[in-house]
Amino acid sequence: MQVSSATKHGITTIEFFHPQSNSLPHELLESLAQEIHRAGMDEDTKVIVLKSGGDKTFCSGASFDELAAIKDEKAGLRFFSGFAHVINAMRKCPKLIIGRIQGKCVGGGVGLAASVDYAIATEAAEIKLSELAVGIGPFVVGPAVERKIGASCFSQLAIDATMWRNADWAKRKGLFAEVHTDIQTLDESVERLSQILAQSSPDAMAEMKKIFWKNTDHWDELLTERAAISGRLVLSAESKSAIGKFRKK
């Protein structure tokens, strides 16, 4: 489990990795939020690329081991606040963030894809908001996803929590800006755009980002409130049973 960061020619690449399909335990979430904040404040960084390790799943969402270990509402709030911190770090970051989405996105992974400013994906990047299937809901990532694809498409994903939508669906709905046939062409497109943005006006991009994220100034409070809802629901007998079944798979 790790988060790494490297800057070259004005492009800062932030990569997260977890051996369990790039799942997101609390420690990784907090490290990711810190790295995004740091890159946003770094004068040498002109543009950020967010990626995950490996060539399969981009992000499988919350760590089931940590979900199962939550014993009270305080612990639940702490865990789900990790997702809030990452989304808010991306929202407040004055640098444009390109998402390199090489594979499937589940739950919180969809939230990450929705929170980058420009998502470039492969055809393998199917998406699913699976939270209802484990007795909770996509409360924390919901505002980010709804902002990108609209209330109707967000509700479709949230309600049918076991159905995968393919990358073409995600592109047509506005989650992905581009979809490529393979990782090689994905990387070529990420490299092309990041190099162009690294040579663009930092002030202009920062002002553009403010416009892209208009009407979200209340998200610090909103996402914390949403984290509390998830933190309460994850303690239910239904949620504990569902999480236990998923861990056995």
What can you tell me about this protein's structure?
The longest helix has 20 residues, at 73-92. The protein contains ten helices and eight strands. The protein is α/β, with parallel strands linked by helices and 249 residues long. Helix 3 (73-92) runs antiparallel to helix 9. The strands form two sheets. A six-stranded mixed beta sheet has the order 1-2-3-4-6-8, with helices on both faces. It has a two-stranded parallel ribbon with strand order 5-7. It has a single domain (2-198), classed as 2-enoyl-CoA Hydratase, Chain A, domain 1, CATH 3.90.226.10.
Brief summary of the model shown:
This protein has 249 residues and is α/β, with parallel strands linked by helices. The chain has 10 helices and 8 strands.
By DSSP, the count of extended strands is 8
**Radius of gyration, CA atoms, in whole angstroms:** 17 Å
State the distance separating the first and last CA atoms. 21 Å
Number of helices: 10
Please specify the SSE layout and strand pairing.
Elements: E1 2-8, E2 11-17, H1 26-41, E3 47-52, H2 64-69, H3 73-92, E4 97-101, E5 105-106, H4 108-115, E6 118-122, E7 127-128, H5 142-159, H6 167-173, E8 178-180, H7 183-198, H8 202-212, H9 219-233, H10 237-248
Helix pairs in contact: 1-3, 3-4, 3-9, 4-5
